[in-house]
Design goal:
single chain, 387 residues, alpha/beta, Rossmann fold, 2 domains, 15 helices, 13 strands
Length: 387
């Protein structure tokens, strides 16, 4: 199968995203992946921080050009404006790519690429990997008037209804936008999990290490971490990753005098996993919003793979996944209480972590997820060939 993916970030960025994981598996299994990507950009967005050279067999990168003066300029609503313009360029060039590479299916995840839905020459596959309407609402800020958001909702609805196949990362998103979609969660590659690999990263001292990994974006409740670090200075708190909130966290660390807070900056995925191994307690602190209730965080499964106790915000999809084995906190006092509980009851914490590991092995590994994706899309490709 030849599959084309209009990607909205750089393939070799520090983000080992859902699409990197699934597409790498497809390529490994013999499918041909053609990935259109935007130009390099100097940006605090972790999707444009390149830190690895991961060119795999059966994956061909197609660089889409953009006017350099526009692409590298500092603009208001930069993410929306630049990625919107990039999608318009893709819409103009996608037909040529499909013909040139004899594409069977196109996987996309932006409603700005709505012309791809319902094409006669390829199978159109949409992935609801995030709440794209709520993401747009945040990025537009004060310009997110109700008519604009309603237009986005209608465009997404039209796009989903015309696609041959729709996947959703969470039950919450499926119920909200497209109940007929196929559930395809996130997961973890167990071959990359190496217990003991991060021992050298543990900071000096005897206090427990409480850590977070991931992109430093607005939907993470970093205030909860900052306040907890201030309340529990006998613990070391680690925030491993880069993103648009990094500078703010640096400023807050200095303002509050948090010598027990470590900020690593952007790291490649292998190093991120080493940090997870070094933690005693893992954090999944999301702000409660329409966006986060539909999230299925990859970091959650990486924590579970290392058999770590996890404290999470009460977001809907994560509660559905881990109601019986995760710890819950939506504020700094709650977070501190859960840390104390885990420290006081290590056997209980280890039992919960083991339960999470067993759930992970049954339902949330990338090989099984990629196989399910390929099975569904291949069936649609064969059906379209018969028409």
């Amino acid at each position: 199968m030849n599959i084309l993916v209009p990607y909205l970030s750089r393939w070799n960025s520090i983000n080992c995203s859902r699409y990197v994981q699934i597409l790498s598996r497809l390529a490994r299994n013999g499918h041909n992946v053609y990935l259109a990507q935007p130009p390099v950009m100097d940006s605090p967005d972790s999707g444009f921080m390149e830190a690895r050279d991961d060119q795999r067999d059966n994956i061909r990168l197609l660089d889409v050009t953009m006017p350099p003066l526009f692409w590298n300029a500092a603009l208001p609503m930069e993410k929306v404006v630049k990625k919107g313009a990039y999608c318009l360029k893709l819409n103009a060039e996608i037909g040529r790519m499909i013909r040139a590479h004899r594409i069977d299916a196109v996987l996309f995840y932006s409603m700005a690429l709505y012309p791809l839905a319902g094409r006669d020459d390829v199978v159109s596959v949409y992935d609801l990997g995030d709440d794209h309407v709520d993401l747009l609402r945040h990025e537009l800020g004060k310009y997110s008037a109700r008519p604009v958001i309603r237009f986005a909702e209608m465009l997404l609805e039209k796009t989903l209804s015309r696609c041959d196949c729709v996947f959703s990362v969470s039950h919450h998103l499926a119920h909200k936008y497209f109940p007929g979609s196929i559930h395809l969660p996130n997961g973890v590659d167990m071959d990359t999990i190496r217990p003991g690999s991060g021992k050298h990263l543990r900071p000096a001292g005897n206090g427990p290490v409480v850590g977070f990994v991931g992109s430093l974006e607005y939907f993470i409740d970093f205030q909860q971490i900052l306040e907890a670090a201030s309340l529990r200075r006998d613990c070391t708190f680690v925030v491993a990753g880069g993103g648009r909130q990094y500078r703010r966290l640096q400023d807050e660390k200095q303002r509050l005098g948090l010598g027990n807070l470590i900020l690593t900056g952007g790291l490649d995925h292998e190093e991120i996993l080493k940090y997870v191994d070094s933690f005693d307690i893992c954090l999944n602190p999301f702000r409660l919003s329409p966006l986060t209730h539909g999230a299925c965080p990859i970091k959650l499964f990486e924590y579970m793979a290392f058999r770590k106790p996890v404290i999470s915000s009460r977001i809907a999809e994560v509660q559905r996944i881990g109601d019986k084995f995760l710890y819950w906190a939506d504020s700094a006092p709650e977070l501190v209480a859960r840390i104390d509980e885990i420290i006081r009851q290590p056997r209980e914490a280890a039992g919960r972590a083991q339960q999470g590991f067993e759930v992970l092995q049954r339902h949330y590994t990338w090989p099984g997820i990629a196989d399910r994706f390929a099975e569904v899309v291949q069936a649609h490709v064969e059906e379209k060939r018969l028409c």
